[in-house]
Amino acid sequence: MQGLQKIVDGINRINERIGRAVSWLTTGLVVLVVTDVIFRYLFNTTKAWTIELEWHLFALIFLLGSGYAFKHDRHVRVDLFYSRFGKRDQAMVNLVGGLIFLVPWCILVIYSSWGYAMQSFRIGEGSPDPGGLPALYVIKFGITVGVFLLLLQGIANILQSYLEIKEASSETTE
How far apart are CA 45 and CA 43, in angstroms? Predict the structure, then answer.
């Protein structure tokens, strides 16, 4: 059981560090948007690369921060009954939901997005807009990496739920 807890703690540390690092992209995005708005309204000009960089940063914040959000229970949940459940039942929902829905979905998205990202990298895909960003494959790899981080956190959540179920079972038998 200690080995499983070490795995959970290791995954939690990875997503915590990446989430904190990615949060700085938010500051960069705010500065970029404010600068773009100033140039647009004061000088009546904008650049294609600025607009594309805005949505690339937003996408990277969302994608790379998904594991962090899941770790801190800040993800979307349809909470009709979950909040009324006891800890053991919540852990059971998390375990089963993670195994049946989250892990297969993440694997499917990782598999699919990796192929698109590699193809984009091989051809050196860039923006179709004149003056746009030259490396569109970066955002495509962001999908793969972000969903991989979500998968890791899902595995940590499944293992933590298993440990909670075992702990609750041992408490009831004592």
Answer: 5
Contact 163, 8 (CB under 8 A): yes
Q: Terminal CA-to-CA distance of the chain, rounded, Å?
A: 18
pTM for the structure as a whole:
0.90
Q: What is the pLDDT of residues 105-150, one digit of tens each?
A: 999 999 999 999 999 999 999 999 999 999 999 999 999 999 999 9
Burial of residue 24 (CB within 10 Å: 0-12, 13-18, 19+) is exposed
- Residues 121, 137 contacting (CB under 8 angstroms): yes
Quick check: 94 and 161 in contact, CB under 8 A?
yes
Distance in angstroms (rounded) separating the CA atoms of residues 107 and 44: 45
Q: Roughly what angle, to the nearest 10 degrees, separates helices 2-42 and 48-64?
A: 160
CA distance 135 to 154: 30
DSSP 83: G
Dist. CA 8–CA 21, nearest whole Å: 20
